[in-house]
Write a structure and sequence with these properties.
Layout: H1 4-11, E1 14-23, E2 27-37, E3 39-49, H2 56-60, H3 68-93, E4 103-108, E5 114-121, H4 128-139, E6 147-157, E7 160-169, H5 170-182, E8 189-192, H6 193-205, E9 212-218, E10 221-230, E11 237-246, H7 248-253, H8 255-266, E12 269-273, H9 276-282, E13 291-292, H10 293-300, H11 312-319, E14 333-334, E15 337-338, H12 348-430, E16 436-443, E17 446-453, H13 459-464, E18 469-480, E19 486-494, H14 496-504
Parallel strand pairs: 1-4, 4-8, 9-12, 12-13
Antiparallel strand pairs: 1-2, 2-3, 5-7, 6-7, 9-10, 10-11, 14-15, 16-17, 17-19, 18-19
Helix pairs in contact: 3-5, 6-10, 6-11
């Protein structure tokens, strides 16, 4: 019997390369994954700094008494400086991947996106996308055409349908996409660290029971993500339980500490990335036992490079989509519209494997008909060989049946010969000497006799007086011939009671 896990892995078999690009304020992290059938390895990992410029502090301190045109010139200079730094960083990364062949996915920190929990009526479950199109402007301070957005289902919450909305403003993202497009790079999608880290954990650990929390971050900004697998047939479906981004300022106010305690109480399993110990020190809490996601990734990715640092993990989580290893199929925003949960369900290799399996199944099924036909022909040849012998056996069987019938008659006659002899003996005593018997028949205690006598009627009382016969009478009219003798045909029954007594004697 096939193992369901093995069958699931077979559907993910492929030969692919994928690139994940993690874009932060001050640096870029690029990773490249290669998949050979079912083996996944880390091929490239690169980091590039994005210098902010010497006048960044001065620009950020511009106040209202400065002329508006001076402010605009300064801000435009800052934007141009950041765009040039981004372009130079991307140009330096170009030799490390194939822009025309490798699929590229971008990951941005949760702070650069709007991640919001929504609850819609249960009637909207069949058309969540349309319902979200109507609700999005009511739920966030952006117009619908100003953001790229997608969602991750949370499942039912009472009589409501829960989902997490992911929206990224087009304005800051459009600059990054424009730089990539000028270099001939068209990203397959953009996602946040929420789904990227969730996919990375599910790739490293596989399906796991119970709720699980991921805690980590960078630059003193922390993210807390909760995941749980929901049973769904032969393959469990992951659900997003919670997602929180806490800036450094929230720790001073104490709200981050309460969120951290709530997340730990809801998730018995804990995984960490980045400076997790520093997080618990800032919250003045004792760090619980957790598993390091960098170590888990190094165990899972074999045959390639070792993960250098924690900032590579979001890029790895994004790159998993390009090699068809992402468990969260949604949560990716695209330039041409929201992501589709069914994208790339089957690869070309899967289609070839499926075609091979179907062809093998057809051949295997047809082989039974061919084998049956060959066996039938072989049996027909053998039947023709033994047909003369079978015909001889049938003739012998017919003769044997005839002999059996004759034997049965003779056996029955042998069994009844005592009765026949008694009947003949009694007739010789009863019938007078001037009467002649020409025919005698005895069957089932019934006697029939034919013959001639001078007075046929006189034979009836003679036979009636016999203890062996009863019900004596003419079986046909009697006729008198030229010799003055009468021909007769008499019929009589044997007395059963007397016959039994005679038999006992």
């Amino acid at each position: 019997m096939l193992n369901p896990a093995w069958v699931q892995n077979l559907f993910r078999a492929d030969f692919l390369r994928s690139v994940g690009l993690y874009i932060m304020r001050e640096r870029l992290v690029l990773v490249r994954l290669r998949k050979n059938f079912l083996s996944l390895s880390l091929v490239e990992q690169e980091e590039r700094a994005l210098p902010l410029g010497e006048n960044r502090q001065a620009i950020s301190e511009l106040t209202g008494w400065i002329a508006e045109d001076v402010r605009e010139i300064a801000l435009k200079a800052e934007s141009d400086s950041h765009e040039r730094a981004l372009r130079q960083a991307l140009l330096s990364l170009m030799p490390h991947f194939n822009a025309g062949r490798d699929s590229l996915f971008i990951c941005v920190p949760q702070e650069q996106a709007v991640v919001q929990q929504l609850f819609l009526p249960a009637a909207a479950e069949a058309n969540l996308r349309q319902a979200l199109d109507y609700e999005i402007e009511r739920q966030m301070p952006f117009r619908r055409e100003e953001v790229f957005y997608d969602y991750v289902p949370m499942g039912k919450r009472g009589d409501k349908i829960g989902l997490y909305l992911f929206a990224i403003p087009k304005k800051p993202l459009a600059g990054v996409l424009a730089v990539l497009e000028s270099l001939g790079i068209r990203p397959q999608g953009v996602e946040t660290t929420v789904t990227a880290m969730a996919n990375y954990l599910l790739f490293c650990k596989g399906p796991f029971p119970g709720p699980t929390a991921i805690i980590g971050g960078h630059d003193h900004d922390w993210e807390m993500i909760g995941i749980q697998n929901q049973p769904n047939g032969w393959r469990p479906t992951p659900r997003l339980l919670f997602s929180h981004w806490v800036p450094q300022s929230a720790w001073a106010q104490g709200s981050g500490k309460e969120l951290l305690r709530e997340c730990l109480s809801r998730s018995p399993q804990l995984f960490g990335w980045g400076e997790v110990d520093e997080l618990f020190r800032a919250a003045q809490l004792q760090a619980p036992k957790y598993e390091d996601l960098v170590a888990l990734g190094n165990e899972r990715l074999k045959g390639g490079k070792v993960i250098a640092h924690a900032d590579c993990l979001p890029a790895l989580g994004a790159a998993l989509r390009g090699v068809r290893e992402a468990s969260f199929a949604t949560g990716v925003v695209r330039q041409d519209g929201p992501g589709d949960a069914r994208w790339k369900t089957f690869s070309r290799l899967n289609i070839l494997l499926l075609g091979f399996v179907l062809l093998a199944s057809l051949v295997w099924g047809a082989s039974f008909a061919v084998k049956d036909e060959l066996r039938l022909r072989q049996l027909q040849r053998e039947n023709r060989k033994i047909e003369p012998s079978v015909e001889a056996l049938r003739r012998e069987e017919v003769q044997l049946e005839k002999l059996r019938k004759e034997l049965k008659v003779l056996t029955d006659l042998d069994r009844r010969k005592g009765e026949v002899l008694r009947v003949l003996d009694e007739l010789t005593k009863v019938v007078p000497t001037n009467a002649y018997l020409s025919n005698f028949r005895y069957r089932d205690l019934v006697l029939e006799i034919q013959g001639s006598a001078e007075n046929a009627s006189a034979l009836i009382p003679l036979m009636e007086r016999s203890p062996l016969f009863e019900n004596v009478g003419f079986n046909a009219p009697s006729n008198r011939g030229r010799d003055n003798r009468e021909t007769f045909s008499l019929k009589a029954n044997l007395e059963k009671a007397k016959d039994k007594k005679a038999a006992q004697r």
